Amino acid sequence: xxxxxxxxxxxxxxxxxxxxxxxxxxxxxxxxxAPLIKAVYKQVLWAGGHPLLRCTIPxxxxxxxxxxxxxxxxxxxxPDRLAMNTYDVMISLRAAENTRNLASIDAGKIVLQxxxxxxxxxxxxxxxxxxxxxxxxxxxxxxxxxxDADMSLDEYEDFYYGAVMPDMDDxxxxxxxxxxxxxxxxxxxxxxxxxxxLGKKTDLQLSIEGRDFxxxxxxLNVPDGEIFTGPVEDSVEGHVEFSYPxxxxxxxxxxxxxxFEKGKVVKANAEKNEDMLQGLLDTDEGARYVGEFAIxxxxxxxxxxxxxxxxxxxxxxFHMAVGSGYPESGSKNRSSIHWDMICDLRDxxxxxxxxxxxxxxxxxxxxxG
Length: 369
Prior knowledge:
The protein is of the alpha+beta class and 369 residues long. Helix content is 33%, strand content 27%. The protein has an 8-stranded antiparallel beta sheet with strand order 13-12-9-6-5-17-18-19, with helices on one face. It has a 5-stranded antiparallel beta sheet with strand order 7-8-14-15-16, covered by helices on one side.
């Protein structure tokens, strides 16, 4: 077995979610991630936790959406509800063999399921904010992810582990250093009121008054590298053109442009799959408001790979999520969706906070990396 898998499993279990003796741990994974699933399962046992595995195989998700009726699409199984309400830890390990398997599925079916799953999503976010649920998610390198990133599998594995564990000798120590640097930026932002983002075809203003920035240091997401908050719900004004496609359940929506008034998306265009964009924005009332504003900080991620777990961390970018926000940031927005969209700021982009420059051309002016 690749020794990097064992080190990753140790990072996930003993740092990201810090499994303790007696913890009930739900491990959700795709069968293609079997080597990592096994390594994580063993680490949970060694830590004294009680692992429960829920594994899926390729093709089931596509079959579900093609065959299931509306009642089946909206059904929530009791074990899923029980786990989300009572388990201490949740570890998600994704490993797609085909990232386009839902490309031909009716967008309405996907929206219907997201609405139904809103209950579980709200429970997850609320319990996480209260410290009752510790969760993390990562992917396992597959040929599908490599193809999306225009890499060979070997190249993608090197890219993946380089972003997740830049210091192979001390992965945990590395993320602790990242955490310390990001905490300095967050301390400077505390008490600030307004943010102004300028970029190519982008001019946005939003309020962060009374909101907290969260230090993303490889706990919830692996890899990590961002700071984020939930902007005041009715404060977003202006327009943004996102640099990269936004992907939702395998469907790629590219050329997205959004216009905001009093926090709400009042106009939206896309060059590709605009029906998907409009459908998701109409999922519920909260879907047209911003739940997250974030700045990417992972210097090991420099290119777009069509994998949001990595792309939203691109050093030199910011991203916004329409839909549900994270309660720990102060966000009050609730929705059945949380959809991240990324804008590159490395070529002339700026972020001003209370009329003081914080960020220019992809780096923190006040806190150079």
